[in-house]
Amino acid sequence: MELINGLVTLYTRDMDNKHVVRFSDMLKNKTVKFVRRLEESEMEALMWYKNPLVLVFQDNTQLILQCDDEGNDGGAAIFYDSKQGTMETIYTV
């Protein structure tokens, strides 16, 4: 059983690393141009009730916070400042 658990852990770690690399490549060197909320038409198209924060980058790509992997609604995030040791929730409206 230990070998199976080790393989599952290794597989999970490798899959997670694969995704971390992919997402890192998508986000590294991005500069936030401005922050906004979704427009009403975007909310309707997504069929969302919670309006999340949207980060718009200099190259006009956007990062939209959602509540889960399936995109069931807008979601919150945590802003963590390790230097200050503080956390703040970036909430939906």
- Our estimate of the beta-strand percent is 25-35%
Sequence of secondary-structure elements: HEHEEEE
SSE class: alpha+beta
* Helix content class: 25-40%
Instruction: Label the overall shape.
Output: globular
Number of helices: 2
Radius of gyration of CA atoms, rounded to a whole number: 17 Å
Structure description:
- With 93 residues, the protein is α+β, with helices and mostly antiparallel strands.
- It folds into two domains: 1-29; 31-93, no CATH class.
- The chain is built from two helices and five strands.
- The protein has helices at 2-27, 40-46, and strands spanning 32-37, 53-57, 62-64, 77-81, 86-90.
- The strands form two sheets. A three-stranded antiparallel sheet has the order 1-2-3, with no helix packed on it. A two-stranded antiparallel ribbon has the order 4-5.
- The mean pLDDT is 85.
Attribute tags:
globular, 2 helices, single chain, two-stranded antiparallel ribbon, 3-stranded antiparallel β-sheet, alpha+beta, 93 residues
How would you concisely characterize the structure shown here?
By secondary structure, this protein is of the alpha+beta class. The protein has two domains: 1-29; 31-93, no CATH class.
List the helices and strands and how they pair.
Blueprint: H1 2-27, E1 32-37, H2 40-46, E2 53-57, E3 62-64, E4 77-81, E5 86-90
Antiparallel strand pairs: 1-2, 2-3, 4-5
